[in-house]
Design a protein that fits this description.
Elements (H helix, E strand, L loop, with lengths): L1 E6 L2 E9 L12 E4 L24 E5 L4 E5 L11 E5 L4 E4 L13 E5 L4 E8 L5 E9 L4 E3 L17 E4 L6 E4 L12 E4 L4 E4 L13 E5 L4 E8 L2 H4 L3 E8 L4 E5 L14 E4 L4 E4 L19 E3 L1
Antiparallel strand pairs: 1-2, 2-3, 4-5, 5-6, 6-7, 8-9, 9-10, 10-11, 12-13, 13-14, 14-15, 16-17, 17-18, 18-19, 20-21, 21-22
């Protein structure tokens, strides 16, 4: 999660990571920060016993109005969560927010913060008994109330999915959602969400990224839109996963395949975190890839990349 906060008299970007699994598949309760230009990830010392704890597949967004990170949901592989947390970087402390009307527990959902309406917008994910959810929830950060507007249940709305890719284009304010689950069954499509009307619309795109159910979607101003990085194909159809980078310009409803230069990550899936500072796209972790032995199989990785 990329955040911006004041550090003394200097404003700087911070990449925040919480939870996940290590190469022993241990679920971790740790919070880490990375500052661009530094060589190390310092773990955040937290003397408080109150924090989100060990979990994975949760969602985090940056609340720019209050300069804090908001976290919702996730799973520890035994149960799913429906709690909401805030991390204050100035004090390095987590606080569980006393929200009302909470969404059902879930993981692998999409979530963004909209500064215009001052609310967190959440869609889909994987719920109890592994069902794919298609519900939309809004968190009013002034009242800490979660609501599911009736207008979001009306047609048209996206079908249920997990591994949701969701972002707000910082140039236009347009909220975009795509992504799908592993395997067949969901069409490759792009949706827009109107935070004022609280309604979904299917974008009439010129083309769509195909079979990229594990990618990350982030706003990168320098690229003039949203950047999607992920892996196309499958072992069954092509004998491997091929890295692809796409740019989406919401006003034109147009996807463009970017011919990225230089070395690229080697087929990781389920990246641990992705973020943008407006100039670059940062990618951390995932399964498999260049820093994992070839015979290690599906193994968490620790490499960090920058586009």
């Amino acid at each position: 999660m990329w955040g911006r906060r004041w550090s003394g008299s200097r404003r700087g970007g911070v990449l925040l990571l919480h939870g996940g699994q290590n190469r022993n598949w241990d679920m971790l309760p740790e919070t880490w920060e990375w500052f661009p230009g530094s060589d190390a990830w310092p773990m955040v010392p937290d003397a408080s016993p109150l924090n989100p704890g060990a979990r994975t597949s949760h969602a985090m967004v940056w609340d720019s109005a209050r300069e804090r990170t908001i976290l919702f949901g996730g799973t520890d592989l035994h149960r799913d969560f429906a709690d909401t947390w805030a991390f204050d970087g100035s004090t390095s402390r987590w606080e569980r927010l006393d929200t009302s009307g909470n969404p059902p527990p879930r993981s692998q959902h999409g979530m963004i913060y909209d500064p215009v309406t001052d609310q967190v917008i959440l869609f889909g994910g994987r719920g109890m008994n592994q069902e794919r959810l298609h519900d939309t929830w809004l968190l009013d950060l002034a009242t800490l109330e979660w609501i599911q507007p009736a207008s979001t249940r009306a047609a048209p709305h996206p079908r249920g999915r997990d591994h949701v890719q969701m972002a707000r284009d910082s140039l236009t304010g347009i909220i975009v959602m795509r992504g799908s689950s592993l395997g067949p069954g969901l069409p490759d499509e792009t949706w827009h969400f109107d935070a004022h009307a609280r309604s979904w619309s299917l974008a009439q795109t010129n083309q769509e990224p195909q079979e990229m159910g594990h990618g990350f979607l982030r706003s990168v101003e320098r690229m003039g839109g949203l950047v999607l990085f992920g892996f196309h194909g499958s072992w069954e159809t092509s004998g491997g996963y091929l890295p692809q980078t796409w740019v989406y310009r919401p006003q034109a409803e147009a996807w463009t395949l970017l011919q990225a230069r230089g070395e690229q990550p080697e087929s990781p899936m389920d990246h641990g975190q992705a973020a943008s500072d407006g100039q670059h796209l940062f990618l951390l972790g995932g399964f498999g890839g260049d820093d994992v032995p070839p015979d290690a199989g599906l193994t968490p990785r620790g490499a960090m990349w920058r586009l």
